[in-house]
């Protein structure tokens, strides 16, 4: 079984996928990291040097490659991945998709502390961050909401979120 985590940046995809892979003894695959390894540069640099269209094509190819060869893993995809091509459709056809739903307020609080690691928001004023996030979520929630499962992450710690996801697949 492939469990895929989707959601906006700051929703906890990377952190929760690490916990899940350890707790369920599954291989961990981070789509953005795989693309970075292939092109030998961070995603932000790929965007900067080659453009978003190039990145989205590379992302789609890497997603297809992973889904064709992996059978048991936790897959963390980029925040924008579900919104391009028919990525959400192939994610749902090949994985147990889980949307980590997080409120604008929670995302803004988390991301304000992570700006140095997030080039897309690095120059956005903290006061403008909620509006920026809300606009993106408005565009992307249509895709995110198509996940097979939704787990709300507000007011929960990573262990609680991971436990809730594990319970979806190992009901007791």
TrEMBL record:
EC numbers, comma separated: 2.7.1.71
Molecular function terms, GO-annotated: ATP binding; magnesium ion binding; shikimate kinase activity
Purpose: Catalyzes the specific phosphorylation of the 3-hydroxyl group of shikimic acid using ATP as a cosubstrate.
Keyword Acetylation recorded: no
Origin: domain of life: Bacteria
EC class of the enzyme, as a word: transferase
Cofactor note: Binds 1 Mg(2+) ion per subunit.
Cofactors: Mg(2+)
Gene Ontology CC, one term: cytosol
HAMAP family: Shikimate_kinase
Subcellular location: Cytoplasm
Pathway assigned in UniProt: Metabolic intermediate biosynthesis; chorismate biosynthesis; chorismate from D-erythrose 4-phosphate and phosphoenolpyruvate: step 5/7
Record: residues binding substrate: 32, 56, 79, 140
Assigned keywords, A-Z: Amino-acid biosynthesis, Aromatic amino acid biosynthesis, ATP-binding, Cytoplasm, Kinase, Magnesium, Metal-binding, Nucleotide-binding, Transferase
Protein name: Shikimate kinase
Residue positions binding Mg(2+): 14
Assigned protein family: Belongs to the shikimate kinase family.
Main location: cytoplasm
Chain sites annotated for binding ATP: 10-15, 118
Catalytic activity, as annotated: shikimate + ATP = 3-phosphoshikimate + ADP + H(+)
Subunit details: Monomer.
One Pfam family it belongs to: SKI
